[in-house]
Amino acid sequence: MTQGHTITIEQGDRHVRVVHGEQVLAESDRALVLRETGCPPRYYLPAEDVRLDLLTPSDTHTYCPFKGTASYWSAPGAPDLVWSYPDPKPDVAAIKDHLCFYEPDVS
Which segments does the entry list as coiled coil (predicted)? Predict the structure, then answer.
């Protein structure tokens, strides 16, 4: 990490549920919480807790100098709703095989 920029990853202790429309897209008690300087906390859910059958891979890819290249998936009416880092940088290797949604319900 560069000076002044930090990323921490810890095992979450909250239930995370993602609903789009009336469809539950993901539900997990095993989410990782990623905290990054200048960003809200993000919940990364294990792939097996995500209904990948309800998502469509997107052509979108973004690059983060701290995490690597992200791949995205879309739900009907919600483009690029979820992302993951298939080959994350070593400092954030824990998020491999995990997916992150915008605006999950965390309880």
Answer: none
Amino acid at 62: T
Alpha-carbon dihedral 42, 39, 78, 64, rounded to 10 degrees: -90
Which residue type does 14 have? R
Residues, the chain, total? 107
CA-CA distance, 8 to 19, in Å (whole number)?
A: 26
pTM, entire model: 0.93
Domain 7-106 class? mainly beta
- Buried b / exposed e over 63-78, threshold 16 CB at 10 Å, is eeeebbebbbbbbeee
Pairwise CA distance, residues 84 & 68, whole Å: 10
**Spans of all domains in the chain:** 7-106
**Residues 29-40: pLDDT tens digits?**
999 999 999 999
